[in-house]
Design goal:
The protein is mainly alpha-helical and 211 residues long. It has one domain. Helix content is 71%, strand content 0%. The chain has eight helices and no strands. The relative contact order is 0.14.
Amino acid sequence: MNFQNIVLLIPPILLALTFHEYMHGYTAYRLGDPTAKYAGRLTFNPLAHLDPIGTLMVFLVHFGWAKPVPVNPSYFHDPKRDMLIVSVAGPAANMVLALLSGILVRFVRAGALSFLPQFILQPIYIMLILSLQINIALAIFNIIPLPPLDGSKILYGMLPHKYDYIIDDVERYGPFILMGVILFGWMTKISIIGAFISPFINFFSNIFGGV
């Protein structure tokens, strides 16, 4: 990856990760939990949300994570249901950004910004495509039901209480499984997660942006 590509990747990645975590915190706050607010996480400042390893993974393997927003379910009226809503908010926010990016890609291709010089228009177009694809990838990656990803909490919210023991096992071993799969893909160039995510990226990129 050359320097120009890295520079063009940075704005879409920062926006995707920041909006994802902000929506977790904001949704929790609206449901009665002020923990994220007190922790200074109800902000669009990327520095408040970035996880160094998760951000590095985005550049290395094209999917990653931000620093999880602190949530205290004891503030919720219905902890199981409300935690599900909070967990869905992050991936949902990324899909909204992907949709908006796709719409803007279509506008650019239709000539809506043709008044701009090519040396300005071309980087904008590339960043919009990257934003489209990064947000889809982040949304799909995060619904994988392994901690610390949102999918584990979504799974917890969907399962009846009698199956809570499954989540306990997932919480115990999930992070190791996830990191093992990521490292396996990095070392062998056979990305299991990438193979899972890629069809979704292609499908939604085509629907949202005709890419």
